[in-house]
Design a protein that fits this description.
Blueprint lengths: L8 E3 L18 E3 L8 H20 L10
Parallel strand pairs: 1-2
């Protein structure tokens, strides 16, 4: 935005959440949202499905003892 290489921008995630750099408010062509992408029904379903897949994958693997390194 500062270098005028972008015409518009939308930002949903910030480096140091919660909060953001207030200097960003000076850009009129920047849309800032409070991390809303994960709040939709579709994203909640997808997150739940992915979490369930990971749990199933974890428990379906053969257990191996941890290798120790001297």
């Amino acid at each position: 935005m500062k270098s005028n290489k972008l015409r518009y921008a939308c930002v949903d995630v910030f480096e140091n959440e919660p909060g953001f750099n207030k200097k960003l408010l000076k850009y009129k062509d920047l849309i800032i949202t409070p991390h809303l992408a994960g709040k939709t029904a579709e994203s909640k379903l997808r997150m739940g499905t992915e979490a369930a897949k990971k749990v199933i994958e974890y428990f379906s693997k053969t257990r191996r003892s941890h290798k120790l390194i001297d």
